[in-house]
Input
Amino acid sequence: MKKRLFSILLILCMALTMLPVTALAGEVSSGTYDIAINGTKWKFEENDSGEYIPVYYYKNYTFNTDAENNFRTNDNLMLTKEGDTVTISFRRGTSYQSYYHQVKFTIESKVEGSDISCIEMGNGNNLVITGEGTKGTLTLTRDGKDGIGAALSSKVGNITITGGATVKVTFKKQSTPNVSGHAISVDNHDLIISGEGTTVEATNQSGASKDFSNDATVMVEGGSLVVSGGAWLKATNEFTNTNKPYSSDFNNYSYFSCAISGDENAPCTVSVTGEKSRITASAYNSTAYAGTSMGQAYRWANFDVDGAKIEVGNSSYPLTESTVDGIEGNRYVTISVPTAPAPHIHTFGDTWTSDATDHWHACTASDCNAIKDKAAHSGGTATCTAKKVCTVCNQSYGELDPNNHTHLSGWASDETHHWKTCSACSTDIEKTAHTYSEWQITQGATATESGSQYRECSVCHYKETATIPATGPCTHEGTLKYTDNRDWSTHKVECTACGQVINAKEAHAIHGYHINDVAGTHQEFCNKCSFTGHVLHHSNFIYVADGDGHYKKCGICGVTTGMKEAHIFENGSCTACGAADPNYIPPTDPAPVEPTPGGSVIIITPEATDPVFLSGANQTVALGSAAVFRIDYNYAAFRSIAVDGVTLTPADYTTWEGSTWVKLTPAYVKTLGIGTHTLSVYFDGATATTTFTVGGQPNPDTGARDAVGIAAAAAAIALLGSAALLRKK
Output
């Protein structure tokens, strides 16, 4: 029985040792995802800032798609969630793309023999794809051999495409003709396409026999297809059946190539509203084998398109207009809402229009000649050089009086002067140059953009405007802001004056330490940003002499710890701090002894030797890992360390007793270039020297080390089990 238990334990432990490290990582389980992209399931969780982000992105598993013109996922193509709505939005971020290019991204699913969509919704979430005014393009292509399903799919919520986005969705033709697939599929929910400039181009190359009967480019079962606000849906089914598997099948099957469809038991409702909104639906007919395919623009659909223009036909250019009833059975149908001119309503102004004899109110429309209240001038007295002035419309008429200007207007002006005009005779009087105020700034100039200013005449209030030149390139002097990237090694540097990001990932400047309230610990910090590192215990101690004793001092942060200790003198100096022994009397050399005649004297002087490395010499260390060395020499004689001739600061290394141990910190090793370096450890009167090589691959991350540790432990258990079993035998 014990042998059997040991055998089972051995098998289990060996199986654990063969587990890949990735098997220990977390995954979003099936059925709990918010959105799936090419089969990768994303679930949003709330971070410390209250934002919902994809959990894989939070774990550095980046949401990523192909893009053009230097556009980047998570910068220009955002994946966010609010409430029960997941949004894929285009925007122009901080990457170096040209504003002359559109935002373009591609998602392509090539998984064979399955129904894995480019995008599929989960957890009852709705999906919104928006261009946010950028007129961006998202291309979704389902191209897996013998694949089924849809390129864009939702069985749990609505799909809305808006904001001027262009979405191109394609389900490509498969190796067998009788494969049911859709470019877009929505079950028991709505497909909404809205907003001027929003365009959806859906193409399907698959077809299904009448036994399947639900194949369509755009499939909306039991829900509504709504196109509004000037949006355009182009749905095309390009299926053509040129394959004849069995000669008897031509009488039994008819393949459908439908553009837009619901289900026989759950028809969809098609709605087109708003000026410029339209749907163009088309399907091909195969002529290779008579009677084997049927092309239909719509199938199993109800329509709410009152006021729309409908064009139907069975050629590529439908010319006939029809009602909804005329759509059925046609392969090409366009439903559009034309922009209808509003009926003109006269708007008569309050001012009078006049000629030499009459006055009237005219319609304010530039292309309308309608008038009302037309009447002859009346009343008034002739003044100055003008005629009489009509008391109704103030139009001058009649006799002239050259001596008096009494009908003066308000101030008129140009760039240099202002004046008043007699409305009776049109004479300009009181013409004088402007009297300007001080310049007033309306928009300040920046480093790259010019500003504007104005001044105003205090008499006629004429405003003169002028441009303030741009100040030129920003020097960033005194305006740099440092923000911790929270990645333990870098911060972002940006200018608060011009907004430029100087360095997105500058290494922390770790040259100081906080002394913590917790006894015996300190913490490194960056001199530029708010970063604080790991809490470390005092180490690399040195001793500082103080009169008749010495104190222990941390070699990293410099804090003095412990009580004052008495000197321990040996050979004239303290063995810990090196203080001189005030009572030490150097030994005197013995008097020389004359050699015995006929004999000889041999003086043997021991040969001085450098310290020897017990371990770590000529080692290879991964970039970003610690390098540890052990030297056969008295630790009390240690003084300093240099790499490649440069003396290190205490923050770069740790030392301790047991002979002499030296450990170069991972942060310092990470600063060295890949290649071979020289280490020099200096003692009183001696130097230990060796080389070490920095490799090109970093150590595994924490999860990998844990996994390797588990594997190593399991292997050890397996070996122990094997040994016990052998002893038992």
Residues 1-30, 245-253, 287-291, 698-729 have pLDDT under 50 and may be disordered.
